Amino acid sequence: MVLASARTTVSIFGREDIVVDYNLWGEYIVDDLLENVPSATYILITDTNLYEKYVPSFEQSFSTVVSKRGGKARLLKYQIPPGETSKSRATKDDIEDWLLSDKRDPPCDTKSVIIALGGGVIGDMIGFVAATFKRGIKFVQVPTSLLSMVDSSIGGKTAIDTPAGKNLIGAFWQPAKIYIDLTFLNTLPTREFINGMAEVIKVRLSR
Q: Which of helix, strand or coil describes residue 152?
């Protein structure tokens, strides 16, 4: 077990589903998922910019923790192109077709859990996939940008863009867990960090 009592948790809708700390990505998240969001199948979805940097290490952590626990959970992985253009019907269709493919043996089902690793685009898109796949399955958010940590990952807002405008088709689908790993902030470009801080200030001033 790698769960640490010192982790900061934040309550939302009456449940302490938000975990905030450094170095969550890896064994802590795997152990917490297996304990509190149990499933036989976890599906990690991120974009191609983050995949090579973060997925192989998580895969190793997943294998290590599952082995220690004596479990049989599996980890599936999927990546999409980065950027707002991926937040579309076409990308959503591609993900759903992949999830439903006969190549997923055993197939993904109503008890599968999606892990959304990325910024606002990933969170919005993958959250909407979770809200509609098999009429709704559990998912967890692992936001990697400051803006997504303080805004888009909180509250269950999910959506895709259409030619008519942004975020016009979506659903409110609350994540089972939100893991805010502050270590990700060390890799952010200055402009992204400033955009996130602007959102923090806006939220503060609106109260």
A: helix
